[in-house]
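Ticket #4471: structure output looks truncated?

Reporter: J.K.
Steps to reproduce: submitted the chain below (170 residues) through the standard prediction queue, then opened the result file.
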Amino acid sequence: MSKFISVGKILNFHGIQGEAKVGFSKNQQDFFCSLTEVFIKEKDDYLSLKINNVRIHKNFAIVKFDGINSIDELLKYKGCLLFVEEQTIRESLEEDEFLIDELVGMSVVDSDGNNLGFVIGVSNNGASDLLSVKTKSQNISLIPFVKAIVTSVSLKDKKVVINNIEGLLQ
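Returned output as attached by the reporter:
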């Protein structure tokens, strides 16, 4: 069975022709515009929606779905999350890009292999992604996910190696 990952949410209708105003993750405009199909979860099943057209308008995507031609036909999907199959996202990842759920739970170590804590989340401050790391002292520190600090990530070993500069972790 395929694993699905959320890529957006139908926020409202746009116009009267059944177009949807869709919110999506920051910096994911190109990926979202490349999609030809998304899924909506209905009970335990995922319903496929074919995308006819996507355009960006004021930081939102305006999406025209196949077979939805009026506000009434779209309104039942208002508030629904849009999903894609995990494989679709994996195919679009660059060499140094990862899915958040792959990083959460990974050990964080320094270049000498000393255990510093583990990743509990990932966020973005507008400039870069940030790893939320729970340290051995139970503090939570935000680590910029940049090459100068995060030197390597091993999915196989479930380990993130960082350059532990002074003051980075509490």
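Triage note (M.O.): checked the attachment and the full token line is present. The helical segments are 29-34, 71-75, 86-92, 100-103.
Status: closed, working as intended.
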